[in-house]
Write a structure and sequence with these properties.
The protein is α+β, with helices and mostly antiparallel strands. It is about 15% helix and about 35% strand.
């Protein structure tokens, strides 16, 4: 991100001005994302469109795009996971709570400022899968190479019996 672009912005003022902002963040600089990354490289592009909702509140339409290198939970190898998403949130403090039945998620802040980096990071985390996995099990890094129509050996007829040793031990006792 360029040094002259602020992270903390006055959301109510920007909402009144119907401002649109764009930011680019290094994925390595997002603390809540670090543990999910296989490699720290890459960027998160975020667009923010502000609109006034009410006194002391603003609506922010957030759109994100990134291609983080996540860790596959099957093979523990890194893979690229293209992400794009967006949502509409309402930003405000305790003194300006959202209207009951509001269709937007409410993002509570302590002051008159909101961190754009935190909004973008939150949106990215919501767009990621709970357990990241390579797109195709057959090409997964360490997945066994088993054909879809391969016959699985049965315990009763020849073939490999994974619990055969236990059965033999039970017979001895």
């Amino acid at each position: 991100m360029a040094a002259d672009l602020p992270d903390l912005v006055e959301y109510a003022r920007l909402g009144g001005e119907e401002a649109e902002l764009e930011r680019v963040y290094e994925l390595a600089d997002l603390p809540r994302l670090r543990d999910l990354l296989a490699e720290p490289g890459g960027t998160l592009q975020a667009n923010f469109a502000f609109a006034k909702v009410g006194s002391g509140r603003a609506r922010v339409d957030i759109v994100i795009r990134a291609v983080p290198q996540l860790v596959c939970q099957r093979c523990m190898q890194g893979f690229a996971f293209p992400v794009s998403g967006g949502s509409e949130v309402e930003v405000g403090g305790d003194d300006a709570p959202p209207a009951p039945g509001s269709p937007r998620e409410f993002y509570l802040v302590d002051a008159d400022m909101v961190s754009l980096r935190e909004l973008a990071e939150e949106e990215l985390l919501l767009a990621l899968p709970i357990a990241a996995a390579c797109s195709a099990p057959q090409s997964c890094g360490n997945a066994p190479n088993v054909a879809a129509d391969a016959e699985v050996p049965k315990a009763s007829g020849g073939g490999r019996r994974p619990f055969g040793v236990l059965q033999d031990l039970l017979k001895k006792t």
